[in-house]
Design brief:
- The chain is 29% helix and 18% strand.
- The chain folds into 2 domains: 62 residues, no CATH class; 83 residues, Roll (Formyltetrahydrofolate synthetase, domain 3).
- It has 190 residues and is of the alpha/beta class.
Length: 190
């Protein structure tokens, strides 16, 4: 986040199954990077568990004197924008564009949409396009297999790897199993 010239805050979203040791390790790592850290324990404590985070965010908003610096210029060619994100943020060594992605770029340019920003779709399991490369791997190649246009939202979506962009919904929504009694107690959330 510091690449963008901002004052980041890391919120550790604590769950009941997280150990004190796990939380301590994360906090120490974040603080060793000179970044503010707060444990948000809202899962267990509701709003009360987010007070420390809210105070730190408020203080940072009042005191941070830095200004956002975009990672790339929207006028750059599509390939250069994708490469900048993949190398700077993900740690990639190179980018490979499939024939489909190259054709998509030609179509996007022809439509005059090549100056739109990009939002890369990749596996949530890694900063690469490979779910087996965990954490922040280095020196890998990102393969852009296609580029979709989200003209209503105003950005291009390079698709990397094999991913599901929209999660599937069950045949029976979870709401069918939820209920609230006369005392206001909710059942069936988890």
């Amino acid at each position: 986040m510091k690449v963008f010239g901002i004052c980041p805050i890391v919120a550790v979203n604590r769950f009941y199954s997280d150990t004190d040791e796990e939380v301590r390790i994360i906090k120490e790592f974040v603080e060793s990077k000179n970044v503010v850290c707060s444990v948000a324990d809202v899962w267990e404590k509701g709003g009360e568990g987010g007070i420390d985070l809210a105070k730190k965010v408020s203080l940072m908003a009042d005191t941070c004197n830095k200004k956002f610096i975009p990672l790339y210029e929207w006028e750059w060619p599509i390939e250069k924008k994708i490469e900048k994100i993949a190398k700077t943020i993900y740690g990639a060594e190179a980018i490979d564009f499939t024939a489909q992605a190259k054709n998509d770029i030609k179509r996007i340019i022809k439509l005059g949409l090549d100056k739109l920003p990009v939002c890369i779709a990749k596996t949530q399991k890694s900063l690469s396009d490979n779910p087996e490369l965990l954490g922040r791997p280095k020196d890998f190649v990102v393969t852009v297999r296609e580029i979709q246009i989200s003209s209503g939202a105003g950005f291009l979506v390079p698709i990397t790897g094999e991913i599901m962009r929209m999660p599937g919904l069950p045949d029976e929504p979870s709401a069918y199993n939820m209920d609230i009694d006369n005392d206001g107690n909710i059942e069936g959330l988890f």
